[in-house]
Amino acid sequence: MTTSHEAEALFGNRFLTERAPSTTFPENGMRPTDAMRLLAEDLNLEGDPQRNLATFVTTWMEPEAQRIIAENLHRNFIDHAEYPISAEIEQRCVRMLADLFHAPGETTGCRTQGSSEAIMLGALSLKWKWKERREAENRSTDRPNLVFGGDVHVVWEKFCRYFDVEPRIVPLEKDKYTIGPADVEPHLDENTIGVAAVLGTTFTGHMDDIPGINQLLLDIKSRRGLDIPLHVDGASGAFVWPFLHPDSQWDFALEQVRSINVSGHKYGLVYPGIGWLVFREKSDLAEDLVFYENYLGKTDATFTLNFSTGAAMVLAQYYNFVRLGRDGYTYVMKQMQQNANTLATNLRESGRFEVIGDDLEQLPLVAFRLAGDHASYDESDIAWQLSAERGWMVPAYTLPPNAQEVKIMRALVKETMSREQVERLTQDIADACTTLDEKGGTTQTERQQVKRGTGY
Ligand SMILES: *Cc1c(COP(=O)(O)O)cnc(C)c1O
Predict the structure, then answer these.
(1) pTM value?
(2) Which pLDDT score, from 0 to 100, does residue 449 have?
(3) Which residues of 155-188 are buried (b: 16+ CB within 10 A; e: fewer)?
(4) Ligand 1 in contact with 56 (CB < 6 A)?
(5) Ligand 1, closest atom to CA 265?
(6) Which one of 19, 156, 190, 285 is separated from 367 by 20 to 30 angstroms, measured CA to CA?
């Protein structure tokens, strides 16, 4: 007779019958298989990334890329002395991005954990460059401000709070979800460290009027002698526009665009933790922010908020660049756009929805809201019903001030969303609406459970 302990070791794992450790540091360890299965079983209950149409972040990479990642998880990116090739591959990626973004000459940039770190660093450089300009003129440096629209990601306000800069936020309006030069102009003065414009907003996927803002800044430079730099937050858009809208003007081809961030883990098509910051010219990076250290055996320049981090995602990014090239990225973006267009057409033809701004340059997504009067339920009800019935995660959210009475839904149509799935989603949305037509809106408590952000 085997004891129950032996039987468990032979046939099962401990957590079939025991709670998972969660409050105190475990006294005893467990077998590797037990630990692995404990985690796997816990994670099974999470959302299915394939049905997560809320996130901008990559949920699929091809097997060869996964292999590169798995085989390089042990490389510490910051250790340039030990891993100089990884560092060189980072610089190759920076040069390729600078080329993609039409940088006029030699440039500089770096990998980051994502666009948030890239924005913190880029905005810090704006602040430092502004300080240099002010100090050179013997003027005060205690009231810096940064101008951006209400359509930005939360990281911009975070930067302002963390690094003590006054945010000057241009409010949105009903039916106007991006900003342009006329909105920006009244907020600019000698203490403006820069203007941030978005290429592909998280809310509706559109771009601010970047050429218009660039022209405004050029005019101000010649009229008032104020050289205010423009930073483009291309977290999503900077990997979409070069391929879908190559004739659109938004990058270093515009003179006041001094720095650009992009998330490798969004439309760069790499798994999370990779972003990029690229400067127009070397002189756009404030030299004061670069630290030189030789802890790891060789003097090295670092411009980063973190220190140690994995090299695998840098390598995966390079893999994608050489694997896909311009024609590969163009193919993938167009395929997503085509399926997004089909979804938009389906939703419009259903008669229930209006689609927001799909006649404009946009990320491959569909932003939509109920058309006409559906007083018995709203977009949040549909999001909840759709998730409950079919497991699709399609967020509903209100737009930022002063468009906060507008509620919309947004579906990202990614690489893995096939035409067949588009048709299925269309049907599932229709079914969710039919359920709601019959029973009315969901309850507050039900709704609390699907309160999701606007995606990341
Ligand atoms: C996602 C996003 C960010 C933040 O990027 P992370 O890579 O998630 O840190 C910033 N700005 C915009 C416009 C975004 O879409």
Answers:
(1) 0.94
(2) 53
(3) bbeebbeeeebebbbbebeeeebbbbbebbeeeb
(4) yes
(5) 7
(6) 156
